[in-house]
């Protein structure tokens, strides 16, 4: 069984002051590359799990989302960082098992890649991320304001990566 870090996208990997509806809207935080390299070197598989309800709401399309994610992975590949998979929930109003706080995306990836969830982490900036990680059986790290349900709270992804590799 492998260990993984599940990462929310907006607010964790990239700035989300304004919506990311096209590739040029994607602005990585300055610490993202260093954090992901640190996690990769520590033998964690990296996954992005992101709610993208803007698709159902009509703000952008699944094609737009794929172009955004292609741009993001191209940047990571140029830095020799491998994101093993990206899961997203396109729903906002529709009842589903994939939209966080449901653990559906994490559970599917864990099954597909033989991930030991007890040895893995969910890193997110919202309580729904923490709840999804908790329900999946991961340790949870909240970025930003403290969340009573999170195992840990840190300022940014680089702090989360340092914490993970030293635990």
TrEMBL record:
<dbReference type="GO" id="GO:0005737">
    <property type="term" value="C:cytoplasm"/>
</dbReference>
<comment type="similarity">
    <text>Belongs to the gmhB family.</text>
</comment>
<feature type="active site" description="Proton donor">
    <location>
        <position position="10"/>
    </location>
</feature>
<feature type="site" description="Contributes to substrate recognition">
    <location>
        <position position="99"/>
    </location>
</feature>
<feature type="binding site">
    <location>
        <position position="89"/>
    </location>
    <ligand>
        <name>Zn(2+)</name>
    </ligand>
</feature>
<keyword id="KW-0378">Hydrolase</keyword>
<feature type="binding site">
    <location>
        <position position="8"/>
    </location>
    <ligand>
        <name>Mg(2+)</name>
    </ligand>
</feature>
<feature type="binding site">
    <location>
        <position position="96"/>
    </location>
    <ligand>
        <name>Zn(2+)</name>
    </ligand>
</feature>
<feature type="binding site">
    <location>
        <position position="91"/>
    </location>
    <ligand>
        <name>Zn(2+)</name>
    </ligand>
</feature>
<feature type="binding site">
    <location>
        <position position="98"/>
    </location>
    <ligand>
        <name>Zn(2+)</name>
    </ligand>
</feature>
<keyword id="KW-0862">Zinc</keyword>
<feature type="active site" description="Nucleophile">
    <location>
        <position position="8"/>
    </location>
</feature>
<dbReference type="InterPro" id="IPR004446">
    <property type="entry name" value="Heptose_bisP_phosphatase"/>
</dbReference>
<dbReference type="InterPro" id="IPR006549">
    <property type="entry name" value="HAD-SF_hydro_IIIA"/>
</dbReference>
<keyword id="KW-0460">Magnesium</keyword>
<feature type="site" description="Stabilizes the phosphoryl group">
    <location>
        <position position="100"/>
    </location>
</feature>
<dbReference type="Pfam" id="PF13242">
    <property type="entry name" value="Hydrolase_like"/>
</dbReference>
<keyword id="KW-0963">Cytoplasm</keyword>
<dbReference type="GO" id="GO:0016791">
    <property type="term" value="F:phosphatase activity"/>
</dbReference>
<keyword id="KW-0119">Carbohydrate metabolism</keyword>
<feature type="binding site">
    <location>
        <position position="125"/>
    </location>
    <ligand>
        <name>Mg(2+)</name>
    </ligand>
</feature>
<feature type="binding site">
    <location>
        <position position="10"/>
    </location>
    <ligand>
        <name>Mg(2+)</name>
    </ligand>
</feature>
<protein>
    <recommendedName>
        <fullName>D,D-heptose 1,7-bisphosphate phosphatase</fullName>
        <ecNumber>3.1.3.-</ecNumber>
    </recommendedName>
</protein>
<dbReference type="InterPro" id="IPR006543">
    <property type="entry name" value="Histidinol-phos"/>
</dbReference>
<feature type="site" description="Stabilizes the phosphoryl group">
    <location>
        <position position="50"/>
    </location>
</feature>
<dbReference type="GO" id="GO:0046872">
    <property type="term" value="F:metal ion binding"/>
</dbReference>
<dbReference type="InterPro" id="IPR023214">
    <property type="entry name" value="HAD_sf"/>
</dbReference>
<dbReference type="InterPro" id="IPR036412">
    <property type="entry name" value="HAD-like_sf"/>
</dbReference>
<dbReference type="GO" id="GO:0005975">
    <property type="term" value="P:carbohydrate metabolic process"/>
</dbReference>
<keyword id="KW-0479">Metal-binding</keyword>
């Amino acid at each position: 069984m492998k260990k993984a870090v599940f990462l929310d996208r907006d607010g964790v990997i990239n700035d989300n002051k304004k919506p990311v509806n096209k590739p040029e809207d994607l602005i990585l935080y300055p610490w993202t590359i260093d954090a992901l390299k640190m996690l990769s070197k520590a033998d964690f598989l990296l996954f992005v799990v992101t709610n993208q309800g803007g698709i159902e709401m009509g703000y952008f399309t699944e094609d737009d989302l794929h172009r955004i994610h292609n741009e993001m992975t191209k940047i990571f590949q140029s830095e020799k960082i491998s994101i093993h998979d990206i899961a997203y929930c396109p729903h906002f109003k529709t009842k589903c098992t994939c939209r966080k706080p449901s653990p559906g995306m994490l559970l599917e990836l864990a099954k597909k890649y033989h991930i030991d969830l007890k040895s893995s982490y969910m890193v997110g900036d919202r309580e729904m991320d923490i709840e999804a990680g908790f329900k999946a059986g991961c340790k949870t790290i909240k970025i930003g304001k403290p969340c009573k349900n999170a195992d840990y709270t840190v300022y940014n992804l680089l702090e989360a990566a340092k914490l993970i590799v030293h635990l």
